[in-house]
């Protein structure tokens, strides 16, 4: 009798734990984010940094631990498309195309970029990158973002 009650009790606990895990998983909603890079002038390596907050997006520290999703993709002249899964939220994207494969964003002697770059919402970069507020967008379902390279 005690063993039977113990089995029933354990069965109820396992169902309860399973239901809680399923509930937690369903709260994290993921969607497709399609990133289209347009007006690529020369082939190279696209460095795509996706941020989910203004502190990291606006930081001068460009280390990978500040980036929510970091992508490195070979691109050809013309356009490039990539689909990734992201959690529901607010994001901002920075992209540059490394045309000389030195793994860094190059500037000339007076600080003007020598390589193509772009930001989500196609915001302009005057005297530095735009703010997260201007470059951010919400993902609440599948989303396509078109970024024209400058």
SSE arrangement:
Layout: H1 2-27, E1 30-40, E2 44-51, H2 54-57, E3 69-75, E4 78-87, E5 89-98, E6 117-119, H3 132-135, E7 137-139, E8 143-148
Parallel strand pairs: 1-8
Antiparallel strand pairs: 1-4, 2-3, 2-5, 5-6, 5-7
Structure description:
The chain has one domain. Helix content is 23%, strand content 39%. The protein contains three helices and eight strands. The longest helix has 26 residues. The radius of gyration is 22 Å and the shape is globular. About 9% of the residues have low confidence.
Salient structural properties:
single chain; 3 helices; three-stranded mixed beta sheet; five-stranded antiparallel beta sheet; alpha+beta; 150 residues
Write a brief structural summary.
This protein is of the alpha+beta class and 150 residues long. Helices cover 23% and strands 39% of the residues.
């Amino acid at each position: 009798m005690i063993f039977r009650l113990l089995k029933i009790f354990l069965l109820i606990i396992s169902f309860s734990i399973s239901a809680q895990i399923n509930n937690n998983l369903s709260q994290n909603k993921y969607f497709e984010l399609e990133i289209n890079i347009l007006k690529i002038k020369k082939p190279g390596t696209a460095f795509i940094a996706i941020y989910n907050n203004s502190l990291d997006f606006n930081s001068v520290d460009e280390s990978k631990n500040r980036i929510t999703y970091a992508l490195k993709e070979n691109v050809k002249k013309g356009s490039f498309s990539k689909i990734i899964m992201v959690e529901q939220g607010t994001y901002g994207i920075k992209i540059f195309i490394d045309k000389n494969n030195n793994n860094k964003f190059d500037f000339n002697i007076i600080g003007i970029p020598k390589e193509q770059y772009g930001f989500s919402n196609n915001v302009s970069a005057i005297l530095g990158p735009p703010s997260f507020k201007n470059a951010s967008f919400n993902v609440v379902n599948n989303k396509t973002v078109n970024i024209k390279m400058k």
